[in-house]
Amino acid sequence: MSGHSKWATIKRKKAATDQKRGNLFTKLVKEITISARMGGGDPSGNPRLRLAIDTARMNSMPMDNIQRAIKKGTGELEGASYDEITYEGYGPAGIALIIETATDNRNRTVAEIRHIMSRNNGSLGESGSVGWMFHRKGSIEVPKTAAGEDQLMELLLDAGLEDLDGDDEAYYTVLCDVRDIEAVKKALEDAGIAYENAKIDLVPENYIELEAEDAGKVIRLIDALEGNDDVQAVYSNMEISEKAMNTLNG
Q1: 121: helix, coil or strand?
Q2: Rounded CA gap, 150 and 161, in Å?
Q3: 131 secondary structure, DSSP code
């Protein structure tokens, strides 16, 4: 799972840039609104909404914004109606990409996604062209300062732990079945262990290792996609070599 943690490292460093773009809250509001529309406005009975609220709070979104998004989803307040559309395609060096979007205008979104892909040496594929390479998993990052590997293994096996990736220098990545993410979170909370970025992730079966030049091109493409307000998440099967990591980190 080394590719997952190396790419997670890059994404974590990009997070500050995403916030500066001002589109992070837009994505979070869409996710909360859609979650409330699909499963109701009570987070205790809607795991997706509960996870979306947790993510929003971890990113310092005010509760007023969260409540408004929930009410728009349940119809208590007027607001745009968003459709969830997933696109699949390829980036530089044949990297597989899955692009999850939430949009109130399908034609606009597909045109913008196609434009971003073509300008950055990527191309859209047919539905199912790369989706079979990925599996949906619960993903939680635990700072290594908060717990040790053996402690996490012992604590989380009964809660649903499937894989514990410790290749990142600062974080363990806990992977579990999507249905077990709340149980894993509760086990960590009950043990007083801090965690970050609890989310549903798409994890590839296999990774393609890239050197700095190609990795940089893929990162620029993903960065451009994530800069679009309609794009909620981008997943790839890119792995970055140690040498490339050092080069990209400057």
Answers
A1: coil
A2: 13
A3: G
Separation of alpha carbons 173 and 164, rounded Å: 6
Provide the pairing of β-strand 171-176 with 161-165. antiparallel
| CA–CA gap between residue 222 and residue 182 (Å, rounded) | 29
Q: pLDDT digit string (tens) for 149-193?
A: 999 999 999 999 999 988 888 899 999 999 999 999 999 999 999
H runs (alpha helix) in the chain:
2-21, 24-39, 47-58, 63-74, 106-119, 149-156, 181-190, 212-226, 242-248
Task: Please choose, from the candidates 30, 21, 86, the residue with its C-alpha nearest in 3D space to the C-alpha of residue 56.
Answer: 30
Domains and CATH numbers, the chain: 2-74 (1.10.10.200)
Task: Read off the tokens for 99.
Answer: 């692009």
Of the candidates 128, 131, 159, 136, the residue with the CA atom closest to the CA atom of residue 48: 136
